Amino acid sequence: MKYVKVPTVLVCMALLPVLAVAEIQKAEHNAVLTDPANDVREGTDPGKDVVKVLIDSDGTNLTITTVLAKEAKYYLKGHTAGDVIRLNLDTDNDTTTGGKPFLYDTPGFEYLIEVGACIEYEGGGVVCAGGMKGAKEVNYFSTYTLKKYTKGSSTERISEAFHWKDRGMDIKGKNVVVKLPYSLMNLKSGQKVRFAVEEKDDASFKKKYMPEVLLTLK
Ligand SMILES: [Ca+2]
Ligand SMILES: [Ca+2]
Fold it and tell me: What is the pLDDT of residues 6-64, one digit of tens each?
């Protein structure tokens, strides 16, 4: 009699993976996304290797913490500044409105947040993309650029902020932190926002994106 039940169990298990594929991760107030280590470009200017992204909503601000595999200084010292991640936000949770990131399969995103790691040099020079050869580095800090999708994959810049250390946001160890007020993107408490997050320096074109998450804002 024991053996009669085995085929029934196997049939049920075979159906499960099909249902799981369409499922998007849902989160309340905050979300954690993970990314493999050692998947960025190599060479004399190593890619900034992201292993985790924390998205937190507090009712007024979105705080985004990008965790690198090593201290941020490892990627920046003597090398170049640049973006660590790009977050695409579908703020109305509707794939029929908004734009589509280049080479990404799903459309529907209203905003793009680019999170950057910058270098400050002696004398006050600041670089958030590239670097100044021969100049002495004195500090590293985080920044973001907010863009709005206009048509297709095109975007327009809405705001840019430098020197987050002056506002209590910074690079600390492995963490690159930025904070954006809801008001910049007309976000409201209780709103559901779909995020597609891209590791900027991922060495492959197709695997840059972390699994999507649908976040209900606090
Ligand atoms: Ca990575
Ligand atoms: Ca949308």
Answer: 444 444 455 554 444 557 999 999 999 999 999 998 888 899 999 999 999 999 999 99
Nearest ligand by distance to the CA of 91: 2
pLDDT digits over 141-164, tens only? 999 999 999 999 999 999 866 555
Which ligand has the shortest distance to the CA of 98? 2
Domain boundary assignment for the chain = 25-216
How many angstroms separate the alpha carbon of residue 187 from the centre of ligand 1?
Answer: 29
Ligand nearest 51 Cα, by number?
A: 1
Whole-angstrom distance, CA of residue 100 vs CA of residue 90: 10
* Ligand 2 centroid, distance to 74 Cα (angstroms): 37
Query: 211: Cβ–Cβ under 8 A, 6 or more apart, which residues?
Result: 24, 25, 33
Rounded to the nearest angstrom, the distance between the alpha carbon of 32 and the centre of ligand 1 is 14
Ligand nearest to the CA of 198: 1
**Cα–Cα distance list, 168 to 23, 128, 165, 215 (Å):** 37, 18, 5, 25
Q: Which of 16-20, 84-88, 152-156, 194-198 has the lowest mean pLDDT?
A: 16-20
Q: How many CB atoms lie within 10 A of CB 143?
A: 22
